[in-house]
Write a structure and sequence with these properties.
alpha/beta; FAD/NAD(P)-binding domain; 480 residues; 33% helix; five-stranded parallel sheet
Length: 480
């Protein structure tokens, strides 16, 4: 076994790992990047990019079906599912190619393939061939989809989202477990492409929403199109012929057996930290086994180990992974003189139809940090002008601001153009704008953003009429 000495070792070559590597190199440190699998980020291979390719195809099919409502009759719609998946795979491979090229542009001596695990506070062993001695480390090992063992026993037709984008053809039917972003995005896309889809959710959650009013609207609009079984759990999954027999149970204890070609597990992702030998580092860890770390510096305790991206399970999103990787790599190069990095305002978007966005502080967070100290403004998109013109008049927006200061704090939304509106509202939070300042901004006509102005005007009214004992959190517990 050979030994390599370096100043910084970065474990993982995904989004956070690559940005961490580049930041450490820019800091003037000799840096190694270790990858256990293949090069290419989760986003490019099995996440945001291939899923948007599938969603775009689904949107095109849906637009054809929706056209008669405008008086436009395009004729019979035929989905060539093999062609759909061929484009998904082709464009996915193109995106992955760009990422791989970026990794391989780094010096070959800086890259090592193999599974890394700590064998001491300053040592990593790579498989059975290399021992790395380093002064500082960046853990950027990403995450993996959760597929319960009891489901996996039913065989290869129980899958995660990682497998969908390798399909050469679309199946006849899919059961989706999970009403989070991934489950709803893929479930709706497959449904619009002609697949029989049922989505099962253990509770009543919809994507990342926590505001009870917005949640109610989101459930209603999803149920208009999709077969979603809220508050229903899967109690048994068995192989059955060429597919699966899926047994579900509702809150009354009533069970139902249905047959599907596949079961897609979209119940969450688990950080890849459990085979890293963290017990040899001396780091304090939480009950999930994740090292305790500073969210501003990414430093684990007072050690020379930093953790970034999905591995720390804070905000498993590509922009966050890049920011955290940059902070971790920069501080690894600077250690022991670490400093806080730029943490941007939270922004999460689900590319469902209608889209779902949260910006800044969520309703649930404000019920903890600002209980009784924030006001709520709202708007429905049912009668919003531009939304009705486009026949996309479904959804609601709720916006939040702090009493007395009038500072804008955040928003939750389901509705048209949420991916763009979410950005505007996140920028307002990060700029620490007041509601008054936001209302001074230009609004064109007719645009969906006029709905934002309506919500802000409602919010301004509540701010100006602060009740003696205002408490918008009727129920401050997390949404089911």
């Amino acid at each position: 076994m050979k030994t390599i000495r370096t100043e910084v070792a970065v474990i993982g070559a995904g989004t956070s790992g690559m940005t961490g590597y580049r930041a450490a190199k820019a800091g003037g440190k000799q840096t190694l990047m270790i990858e256990a699998n293949v090069y290419g980020t989760t986003c490019a291979r099995v996440g945001c990019m291939p899923s948007k390719l599938l969603i775009s195809a689904a949107d095109a099919a849906h637009a054809m079906l929706a056209a008669p409502a405008f008086g436009v009759h395009p004729g019979d719609v035929r989905v060539d599912s093999k062609a759909v998946m061929a484009r998904v795979r082709s464009e996915r491979d193109r995106f992955v190619g760009f990422v791989v090229a970026g990794v391989e542009a780094s010096p070959a001596e800086d890259r090592i393939l193999g599974h890394a695990r700590f064998v001491g506070p300053n040592q990593l062993q790579i498989d059975e061939h290399t021992l790395i001695e380093a002064e500082r480390f960046v853990i950027a090992t990403g995450s993996s989809p959760i597929v319960p063992d009891e489901w996996q026993q039913a065989g290869p037709r129980v899958i995660s989202s990682d497998h969908v984008f390798d399909w050469e053809d679309l199946p006849e039917s899919v059961a989706v477990a999970g009403t989070g972003v991934i489950g709803l995005e893929l479930g709706q896309a497959l449904h619009r492409l002609g697949v029989r889809v049922t989505v099962f959710g253990r509770g009543g959650s919809v994507a990342q929403l926590s505001d009870p009013d917005v949640l109610d609207v989101a459930r209603s609009v999803m149920l208009e199109e999709l077969d979603v079984r809220f508050k229903t759990r899967l109690v048994k999954v068995e192989a059955h012929g060429d597919g699966l027999a899926v047994t579900s149970e509702d809150t009354n204890g009533d069970q139902q057996v249905e047959h599907f070609s596949y079961l897609l597990s979209a119940i969450g992702r688990r950080p890849n930290v459990h085979k890293l030998g963290l017990e040899h580092t001396g780091l304090a860890r939480d009950h999930h086994g994740i090292p305790l770390y500073d969210k501003q510096t990414m430093q684990c305790g007072t050690s020379a180990i930093f953790i970034a991206g999905d591995a720390n399970d804070e905000r498993p999103l590509l922009p966050e992974a890049a920011d955290q990787g940059r902070i971790a790599g920069d501080n690894a190069a600077r250690w022991p003189e670490v400093r806080p990095g730029l943490r941007r305002t939270p922004l999460t978007i689900a590319f469902t139809e209608p889209q779902i966005a949260t910006a800044g502080a969520s309703y649930a967070e404000l019920c903890i940090t600002h209980a009784g100290r924030f006001a709520v403004g709202k708007v429905s998109f049912e009668n919003q002008g531009r939304s009705r013109v486009m026949l996309q008049n479904r959804g609601a927006l709720r916006v939040y601001a702090e009493f007395r200061s009038g500072r804008f704090l955040g928003a939750e939304m389901v509705g048209p153009r949420a991916e763009h509106i979410g950005h505007l509202l996140a920028w307002a939070v990060q700029a620490r704008l007041t509601v008054e300042a936001m209302l001074d901004m230009p609004f064109y006509h007719p645009v969906v953003e006029e709905g934002v102005r309506t919500a802000l005007r409602d919010l301004a009214h509540h701010l100006a009429n602060e009740p003696a004992h205002d408490h918008p959190c009727v129920d401050c517990t997390p949404a089911p």
